[in-house]
Amino acid sequence: METILQTLIIQKATEFVRNELENESSGHDWYHIYRVTQSAKTIAIEEGADLFVCELAALLHDIADPKLNISEEVGLARVNSWLEQNEVPRDASEHVMQIISTMSYKGGGKPPMATLEGKVVQDADRLDAIGAMGIARVFAFSGAKGRKFHDPSIDPRMDMSEEEYRNGEDTAINHFYEKLLKLKDLMNTNYGKTLAMGRHQFMQDYLDRFYAEWEGKK
Ligand code: ADP
Ligand code: NI
Question: Model-level pTM?
Fold first, then answer.
């Protein structure tokens, strides 16, 4: 159970993030945050992780994104000052900062999440890129970029070199193979893995239907 102070902080964080991301269209809108937070809570309970830290880190995890700030450092400093201004206890605020800075790390070879709570939040974020939500987001992203959702001349099920991929226009269907179908093997927690398996199977079934319908076979 969360304390009254924790519940108040979660309420304020929700308001802050909702205001910040209401008009975001890069795939990191408020409802992405909402879903990640809901999944983080579900996994945290199953895994016995600190619910308050997971919930707060999930709410704030995209605020420092370089797409929304001049730089990642500036973004992280904003999150830090929000935590200070809202009197989040020091151990929790340090933990949240540690999670968010590891998650937003864009350099090569992402460092693994150091704590159970970090693993939970990263799993929750990855879950939103797969399953029914992942399918919605991949097509929304592709459409927003004005791309085709599928191009049979660059069948991603065939072996292709990195270069061939880059030269071909990235389609929504391509992105399943480049990233989405790989995410289930990157899950950190047991419960995250269980959820990812169901969502992965759903994407696999979807792709099977997609190719069958493309050829009028279903
Ligand atoms: P995050 O920052 O949440 O790890 P991204 O910013 O890479 O993820 O992607 C946000 C969403 O847009 C995800 O659901 C992802 O699948 C989708 N997306 C990213 N790149 C592409 C792409 N090249 N084609 C289609 N969808 C994409
Ligand atoms: Ni995210």
Answer: 0.93
